């Protein structure tokens, strides 16, 4: 539960920006406890303990319930399915399971047998990597973002060529959780590109990494904490919402093939579940004049939100943005 | 030096597709990003900066420091960029 929670004074659930919300979990030992549970107990017990802890958290955390409800209500208008009273609890529980998954993922790879290929652009994607061509990947706070990275540990199984994954992440909001991740796997955290300090040097570096056959990954569904005004607005789940201009502009600047990749638990509330691994190649060509680019970026965003909506409807509790996505 | 300044201006114009601007329109000492108090400057933004940085690197083979403030100085004006490139260029 590193992501959401307590509010700053003066902001309401309706208009707060996600970066105003502070990391919950008073001290590092909470996370250490989570880690111990995740590593030492059988997974079914991990689920039970998580469910109990979440229940008490859910009872106490009124703003979290309110934020979750905003999302679930938007979703049910689109899907036509009403979300029941316990919906917000399921949402919180699913998020807590994803934290456990993340810790387990950073400790070691998740077995390749648990990846389930979909009937999509996965083949295209693997061919591309095998040719030594990299890509720019836009992922989401849907499902488990770590799965893509786990891929790099199956050399020779999926791809003949070795490649690396470099995520662009805003680490500012989750310092405690990050310090734990650093202990678990210092090499991995060093590969992270800090979203708050992207400059000329890092842009050049990202471009080189992609040219060398690697992946640069960024989440497309959280606006920048630093430049809150640089957003792209589009309809998402029935109402207009802001998306980070920077993430989509990067696609244009790096001028590499763009993929949308999502890994979700097939069974929403089971951390032993297999993962649906969705890979969709964007059809929007960004190789255009700069004049046409804003229009193309909107098109790219539309493609992205279409896929995201479809998967949110399929796995409603696995989208982890616990703030009002439709603020303002 | 004069020649390098012109080459830089051409890279700026080409990479950012500044159609209505010729090298002569760009003041050597004026800011590339934003404008100075005299109203001189190209008024480019941070995303343009990334794109220009990549173009400069491709053209002149120079790399830039990860110290943001440091790099900002080199992109302050065409003059500053020329000074940096002539010092660090590999060829």
Task: Give an overview in words.
The complex is a heterodimer of chains A (328) and B (91). Chain A is an alpha/beta fold and 328 residues long. Chain A has one domain (18-318). Chain A is 44% helix and 14% strand. In chain A, the strands form two sheets. A seven-stranded mixed beta sheet of chain A has the order 1-9-8-2-5-3-4, sandwiched between helices. In chain A, strands 6-7 form a two-stranded antiparallel sheet. In chain A, strand 6 and strand 7 form a beta hairpin. The radius of gyration of chain A is 19 Å and the shape is globular. Chain A starts with 27 loop residues before the first helix and ends in a 14-residue tail after the last helix. The model of chain A is unreliable at 1-11 (pLDDT under 50). Chain B is mostly helical and 91 residues long. Chain B has a single domain (2-88), classed as Non-ribosomal Peptide Synthetase Peptidyl Carrier Protein, Chain A. Chain B is built from four helices and no strands. Chain B has helices spanning 2-15, 46-60, 68-74, 78-88. Chain B is globular. Chain B starts with a helix and ends with a helix. The mean pLDDT of chain B is 86. The interface between A and B is medium-sized, with 18 and 18 residues.
């Amino acid at each position: 539960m590193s992501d959401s929670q307590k509010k700053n004074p003066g902001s309401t659930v309706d208009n707060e920006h996600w970066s105003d919300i502070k990391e919950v979990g008073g001290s590092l030992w909470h996370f250490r406890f989570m880690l111990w549970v995740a590593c030492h107990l059988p997974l079914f017990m991990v689920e039970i303990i998580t469910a109990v802890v979440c229940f008490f958290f859910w009872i106490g955390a009124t703003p979290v319930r309110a934020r979750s409800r905003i999302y679930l209500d938007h979703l049910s208008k689109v899907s036509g399915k009403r979300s029941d009273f316990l919906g917000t609890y399921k949402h919180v529980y699913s998020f807590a399971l994803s934290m456990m998954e993340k810790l387990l993922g950073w400790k070691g790879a998740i077995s390749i047998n648990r990846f389930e290929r979909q009937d999509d652009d996965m083949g295209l994607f693997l061919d591309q990597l095998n040719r030594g061509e990299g890509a720019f990947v836009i992922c989401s706070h849907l499902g488990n973002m770590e799965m893509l990275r786990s891929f790099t540990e199956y050399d020779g199984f999926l791809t003949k060529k070795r490649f690396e994954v470099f995520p662009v992440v805003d680490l500012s909001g989750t310092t405690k959780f990050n310090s734990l991740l650093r202990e678990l796997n210092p090499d991995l955290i060093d590969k992270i590109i800090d979203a708050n300090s992207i400059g000329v040097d890092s842009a050049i570096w990202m471009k080189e990494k992609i040219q060398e056959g690697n992946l640069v990954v960024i989440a497309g569904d959280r606006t920048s904490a630093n430049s809150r005004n640089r957003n792209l607005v589009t309809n998402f789940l029935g109402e207009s919402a802001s998306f980070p201009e920077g993430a989509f502009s990067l696609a244009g600047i790096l001028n590499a093939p763009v993929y949308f990749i999502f890994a979700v638990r097939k069974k929403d509330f089971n951390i032993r579940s297999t993962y649906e691994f969705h890979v969709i190649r964007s059809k929007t060509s960004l190789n255009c004049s700069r004049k046409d680019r804003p229009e193309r970026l909107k098109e790219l965003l539309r493609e992205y939100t279409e896929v995201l909506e479809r998967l949110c409807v399929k796995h409603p509790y696995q989208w982890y943005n616990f703030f009002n996505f439709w603020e303002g | 030096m004069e020649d390098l300044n012109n080459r830089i201006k051409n890279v700026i114009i080409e990479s950012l597709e500044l159609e209505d601007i010729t090298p002569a329109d760009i003041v050597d000492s004026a800011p590339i990003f934003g404008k100075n108090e005299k109203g001189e400057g190209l008024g480019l933004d941070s995303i343009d900066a990334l794109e220009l940085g990549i173009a400069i690197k491709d053209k002149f083979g120079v790399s830039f420091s990860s110290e943001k403030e440091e790099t900002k100085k080199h992109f302050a004006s065409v003059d500053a960029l020329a000074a940096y490139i002539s010092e660090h260029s590999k060829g």
